[in-house]
Amino acid sequence: MIVLWILQGLIAALYLMVSYMKLTRHPHMVESFELFGYSYRVAVFTAVVEIPAALLLIAGIWWPWCAVAGALLVLPTMIGAAVTNLRFKGPPEVLFTLAVIAVLVAVVIVQWGDFTEAIDDANALTSPTVSL
């Protein structure tokens, strides 16, 4: 579980850094989005999605539902990044993007299990028991 928390923190830091670069119009980001033929509004939109997702991934260390929400929030943008990189033949970026997607899916699977267990435990505490 600790490895998963570390990965969540690293991915969250990555999203915060990249979002900052998008919002401040870092030359690399501007160049990339122009190369891909996207309006820079797409970069701003993805940054606006990535920031809360990163914060949810961090909060997910304590509350599993937050990690699930953060991962599900950012997965569509990562899938879009992978498709864009495949379309423009960017092999190193594709592998990195796919690795991030794999970790996010793992976060959802593992944390969703913890989240549903917590719900079951809460229901067990509030459900009346009948003894015969």
TrEMBL record:
Keywords: Membrane, Transmembrane, Transmembrane helix. One of its GO terms (cellular component) is membrane. The chain crosses the membrane at residues 6-23, 35-56, 62-83, 95-113. It is a multi-pass membrane protein. InterPro entries: DoxX. It comes from the Bacteria. It holds the Pfam family DoxX_2. It is found in: Membrane. Its main location: membrane. This is DoxX family protein. It comes from Ilumatobacter coccineus (strain NBRC 103263 / KCTC 29153 / YM16-304).
